């Protein structure tokens, strides 16, 4: 079923591109596809972490302000200087890992429901970010991404896409070729049975939430590299988009089933739908409604598939 859902997600992407190409010549041109791939990569980074926690029946609602906090840490610690970029990247990723670790410990060891724990952590990160930045991320503060990062998006085939491909390879190897990956699926299917078979359920859960934080921070770094400068609320759209990409990509929201290839296809489908609606000059409220209806239609199709299995 997992492979079938990946094919469904890929089919959705192709269908949107074909319809767009018929109605708008140039919609599926390389220049247009290049932009869609770059935009989809941001969702793909965040959705990688979201997928990991969903696989064990969890959810990460702290993504928006982990992403935002990491973006601000990157620019304020690098001050746009190339020589400070490596340390700034490590610090930004460290912020994501630390928050993810806190989420994992709260969920796995303290028994706090994932929704409550991660939503609370999102609020903590929002308060810290606003307090430490004093609500300002302005050009006068020197809050720019270092030049090498901004170069990720240069050229006909941006390095950003190779980075996304690397994330895809990492996720595929981690989940399909390692003992840890088999344990993730085992915990998602039945945590009690996994525990009785010797799987460290708490350790797996903590590791997954930590990785989710790292991927959210990676998305923050990529977005700052793309835009050159962070802004407050930068991560807000990516909570819904990450969950939507995971669900559209065929990952079971109850855990235990899913593949990152489907999430990649889900990310591309969402961006293609948004781009098509913009090309059709559909108003914002209309785009939101159609966007939601497309997601519900795909979920309905998955539900019918499950009922017939």
Automatic annotation (TrEMBL):
Keywords: Cell membrane, Membrane, Transmembrane, Transmembrane helix
Transmembrane regions listed in the UniProt entry: 6-23, 35-56, 87-112, 161-181, 193-226, 238-255, 260-279, 285-303
Stated name of the protein: Ribose transport system permease protein
One GO molecular-function entry: transmembrane transporter activity
Coiled coil spans: none
Cell compartments where the protein resides: Cell membrane
Source organism of this protein record: Asanoa hainanensis
Domain of life of the organism encoding this protein: Bacteria
This protein's record includes keyword Transmembrane helix: yes
Gene Ontology CC annotation, any one: plasma membrane
InterPro entries (UniProt xref): ABC_transp_permease
Primary localization: membrane
Membrane topology: Multi-pass membrane protein
């Amino acid at each position: 079923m997992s492979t079938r859902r990946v094919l469904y997600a890929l089919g959705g992407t192709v269908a949107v591109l074909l319809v767009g190409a018929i109605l708008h010549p140039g919609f599926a041109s390389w220049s247009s596809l290049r932009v869609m791939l770059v935009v989809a990569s941001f969702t793909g980074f965040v959705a990688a972490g979201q997928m990991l926690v969903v696989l064990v029946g969890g959810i990460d609602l702290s993504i928006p302000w982990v992403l935002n906090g990491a973006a601000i840490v990157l620019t304020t610690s690098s001050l746009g200087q190339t020589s400070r970029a490596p340390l700034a990247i490590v610090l930004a990723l460290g912020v994501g890992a630390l928050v993810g670790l806190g989420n994992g410990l709260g969920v796995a060891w303290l028994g706090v429901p994932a929704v409550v724990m991660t939503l609370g952590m999102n609020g903590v990160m929002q308060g810290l970010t606003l307090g430490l930045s004093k609500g300002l991320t302005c050009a006068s503060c020197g809050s720019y991404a270092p030049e090498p990062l901004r170069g990720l998006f240069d050229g006909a085939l941006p390095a950003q896409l190779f980075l996304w491909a690397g994330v895809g390879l990492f996720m595929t190897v981690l989940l399909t070729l390692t003992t840890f990956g088999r344990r993730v699926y085992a915990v998602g299917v039945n945590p009690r049975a996994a525990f009785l078979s010797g799987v460290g359920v708490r350790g797996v859960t903590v590791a997954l939430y930590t990785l989710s934080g790292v991927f959210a921070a990676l998305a923050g770094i990529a977005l700052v590299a793309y835009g050159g400068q962070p802004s407050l609320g930068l991560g807000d759209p990516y909570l819904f988009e990450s969950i939507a990409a995971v669900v559209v990509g065929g990952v079971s929201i109850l855990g235990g089933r899913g593949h990152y290839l489907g999430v990649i296809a889900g990310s591309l489908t969402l961006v293609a739908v948004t781009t098509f609606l913009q090309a059709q000059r559909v108003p914002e409220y209309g785009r939101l409604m159609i966007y939601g209806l497309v997601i519900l239609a795909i979920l309905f199709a998955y539900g019918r598939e499950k009922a017939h299995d």
